[in-house]
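Title: [Solved] CoA transferase 3D structure

Original question kept below for reference.
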Amino acid sequence: MQPPTLSAGALAGLKVVEMGQLIAGPFAGKTLGDFGADVVKIEAPGSGDPLRNWRLVKDGTSVWWQVQSRNKRSIALDLRSAEGQAIAKKLIAEADVLVENFRPGTLEGWGMSYEELSKDNPGLVMLRISGYGQTGPYRDLPGFGAIGEAMGGLRHLTGEPGRVPVRCGVSIGDTLAALHGTIGVLTALYHRHVNGGRGQVIDVALHEAVFNVMESLIPEYSAFGVVREPAGSALPGIAPSNAYRCGDGAVVLIAGNGDSIFKRLMTAIGRDDLGSDPALADNAGRVRRVAEIDGAIEAWTLQRASPDVLAVLADAKVPAGRVYTARDIVEDPHYRARDMVLTQRTRDGYDVEVPGIVPKLLGTPGSVRTSAPGLGDDTDAVLGEIGFSADAIAGLRARKVVA
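Solution (posted by the thread starter after getting help):
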């Protein structure tokens, strides 16, 4: 494995204040930080971001935290106090980007509406991620990523027909919102650069981020009155593309839905009769007989171990892949060759493997410059950068404004 690059990154010099917690806002901050932005994360004294204690915890800190908060600095600041709010405003006045994912109205209640903040910083780009957006009849309802997945149409499609929908296994609603928010930030920064230096607000709703990737869901309903239903592991309306059991108990995904690919697939499994059938020459015909085709493919895969299946299909130039576990990813040479599993030294003194950086910029690649901070690790340094003396910081700490 190549060591992490020490490049300054494409976003070097960009100042970001992150006021969010858990997943959506912080994932956007992580993405900006991976590419060189200076991300200052504001956390509540005492408790900090709840993600510090989510899922599996090692030496008192979640290992998820080590990924989500790398390349960030932590300041422990009481935003419910007038002094804390004044300090936050001072930080934001010098920032390019503010990221927040509180319920709509929270910042306004602290005197930190965009209108107020932009008086001191007209170039400020403010990313606001919430369950339902900053406007509309649902804006004040609490919303997590799972609810966004449900309202966005995704949960209805995940699972087997006739059964209760299942989640995809990760917080995809939050992450999609974060990625849309990051795109919005970069777009707004470009606009600021070419149009006089003024910033703007990016309003991202969790359900809208999910809805935006739902492909032809709505046009199908509009044009045909069709409500797409769950289809398990298959790709509805496109055939063959499904998951197939192998003789060793593994499952492989096979995508033979291109016309020429289908013919090669049928030759590879010894079913030239299907590959040369005129009725199956295009996708529409294959969809009508998808059960027959899937049955023929799985009859072949069940007779072979998954490595043999994948080797035959690779030779036939048919897209296929085994369903990976975490162990498979960590042991895979392709992941290693592309620096997609990195070793990161935590501030607790142990090494942990973490996901690499996506996307890959070949000229100004992202990097892991610093490990995830402890709560308030950078409070003194950050406050010193905006003019607070050591005595002033000591006074704030005595009054429990900072920690």
